[in-house]
């Protein structure tokens, strides 16, 4: 542990400009930009705490996400002073940072739902196509030829299928005799 700390200390001095004042000089404009644009307080941690509590008590996923979103909306309006109408605009098209520090503006600028529409549309179209295939019977038509070798001919008194091992249904490479079970050897499989 002390060796690790000394390594990080030496590498920080070497790559941080030789002393800690150079690193602090780089961070100071970022902190000043954040302080002027946002109200940083422990109240801003409430949405994270709500999500952690929902995870700990094993709350269902969708209501937990909704609780996190609602608590985030409340904190944004109450603690950050954001107008209620701007929240929905930011949620749809994303947040654009106008802080004045180029690095911070680049870090905080992010897209909303609009930037995810390509991936969302692929998922929605795939689900619609899968539902269409299931309703029209195409999936059953594709799967049934693969199931036929696994089904045992039915006797009139039995209506259930037997449990079948995978190697009985589909051709595969031969397995050495010592790896097969005794019942397989007796049956000649």
Description:
This protein is mostly helical. It starts with a helix and ends with a helix. The radius of gyration is 31 Å and the shape is extended. The longest helix has 20 residues, at 117-136. It has helices spanning 2-15, 20-37, 46-56, 61-78, 84-93, 102-108, 117-136, 138-147, 166-169, 182-187. The mean pLDDT is 78.
Topology:
Layout: H1 2-15, H2 20-37, H3 46-56, H4 61-78, H5 84-93, H6 102-108, H7 117-136, H8 138-147, H9 166-169, H10 182-187
Please state the average pLDDT score: 78
Uncertain segments of ≥5 residues (pLDDT<50)?
Answer: none
Main β sheet profile: none
Cα shape:
extended
The helix tally amounts to: 10
The ordered string of helix (H) and strand (E) elements is HHHHHHHHHH
Structural class: mainly alpha
Q: Strand content of the residues, in percent?
A: under 5%
Structure summary, number of beta strands: 0
Estimated helix fraction: 55-70%
Radius of gyration: 31 Å
- What's the end-to-end separation, in Å? 59 Å
């Amino acid at each position: 542990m002390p060796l690790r700390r000394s390594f990080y200390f030496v590498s920080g001095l070497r790559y941080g400009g030789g002393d800690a004042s150079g690193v602090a000089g780089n961070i100071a404009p970022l902190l000043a930009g954040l302080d002027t644009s946002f109200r940083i307080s422990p109240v801003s941690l409430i949405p994270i705490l709500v999500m952690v509590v929902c995870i700990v008590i094993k709350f269902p996923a969708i209501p937990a996400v909704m609780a996190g979103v609602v608590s985030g909306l409340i904190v944004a309006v109450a603690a950050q002073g954001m107008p209620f109408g701007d929240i929905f605009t930011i949620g749809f098209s994303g947040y654009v940072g106008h802080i004045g520090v180029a690095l911070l503006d680049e870090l905080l600028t992010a897209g909303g739902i609009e930037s995810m529409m390509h991936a969302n549309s692929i998922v929605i179209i795939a689900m619609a196509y899968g539902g269409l295939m299931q309703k029209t019977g195409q999936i059953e038509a594709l799967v049934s030829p693969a199931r036929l070798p696994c089904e045992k001919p039915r006797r009139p008194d039995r209506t259930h299928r037997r449990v079948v091992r995978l190697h009985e249904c589909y051709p595969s490479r031969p397995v050495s005799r010592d790896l097969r079970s005794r019942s397989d050897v007796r049956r000649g499989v």
